[in-house]
Amino acid sequence: MMETRVRLEGICKDFQSGKAKIEALKEISFEVGEGELFGLIGPDGAGKTTLFRILTTLLTATRGNAWVDGLEVVSGYKEIRKRVGYMPGRFSLYQDLTVEENISFFATLFDTTLKENYELVKEIYVQIEPFKKRRAGALSGGMKQKLALSCALIHRPGILFLDEPTTGVDAVSRQEFWALLRNLQKQGITILVSTPYMDEAGLCDRVALVQEGRILDIDGPGAMAKKFSKPLWAARAADMYRLMKDLRADDRVDTCYPFGQYHHVTFKKEKEEMARIEKSLMDKGHTGLSLQPIGPTIEDCFMELMNQ
Q: Residues 6 or more apart from 249 whose CB is under 8 A from it?
């Protein structure tokens, strides 16, 4: 049985904005097991960063309790900071220091060296080593990301918190980064990663869907997709915007959302309505019309949960 490495019970966080109280987190509870790659998936403003800051002892909760590596986050904050690695969403290393100076600085903070923990960061470091004399501020987005990850790992943490690590990074660098995370997981590191990208949910062992400070659901990506309650269709036509407007105006349509080159559509009734809806759209002058049944994605599940 997996040992629990992160546990939250009823975590709430309120902020005061003038006379108004803002509830950033509302009764957050979940557990993350040893060696698990756990994803917090949700849009900007969902509360992901606030939650990570509580778990890394940079912020205190208004109510509730949390434990990291068996230590309570308030009373055990000094020891927790030695045991975890944290990569904030915004690049926070020293822009005027070189790559090797940044790594050396963070290693010194934890009384270690790059040489001592080289095997852990080797796969990442070899990619940035050719630029070790370059200032961090002059690196590309992907290289900054790898440097920040190297600094977060330099003291060999048992738990790694990554707050939107691939935001603003090109698609190739995103793929490389997730491959690095899988290799770190094989070395026994427990990883919690937040992202606004729904397609990254499928790369996690389990995901928590977060919206407006609440957990909508927690499950494995495959199991979550199976919970989608209605038949789903992909709709396409020459004029996609007009198609979306016409579908949303049709009383027989339940939901319609743009998904890349298609609209994902659910209907209030089953397949017997499809021929009538298709004919109705053709009567309205839609050309290149296509309606095909498809399987749901994590994003479809997220949209359905939001509607509920």
A: none
**296 φ, ψ to 5°?**
-75, 155
Residue 179 tokens, joined: 């491959």
Q: Which fold has domain 4-225?
A: Rossmann fold (3.40.50)
Distance of alpha carbon 166 from alpha carbon 197, whole angstroms: 9
H or E stretch at 248: helix 240-249
Which residues, in sequence order, are bridge partners of residue 51?
A: none
Which residues make beta-bridge pairs with 266?
A: 255
The pLDDT tens digits of the residues spanning 169-190 come to 778 878 888 888 898 899 889 9
Is there a contact between 135 and 114 (Cβ–Cβ < 8 Å)? no
Closest CA to 187 of 121, 110, 111, 113: 121
3-state secondary structure of 98: strand
Give me the amino acid identity at 209.
L
For 81, the token pair is 């900071």
| Alpha-carbon distances of 134 from 116, 142, 227, 267, rounded to whole Å | 23, 14, 49, 56
Tokens describing residue 262 = 């298609």
CATH 1.10.443 fits domain 228-307: no
Strand partners, 233: 265, 293
Distance (Å, whole) CA 22 – CA 19: 10
Q: Record the pTM.
A: 0.86
The domain spans of the chain are: 4-225, 228-307
pLDDT (tens digit per residue) in 92-135: 788 899 999 989 998 898 888 888 888 888 888 888 889 989 99
DSSP structure class, residue 278: H
For residue 228, name the pLDDT band (cuts at 50, 70, 90).
confident
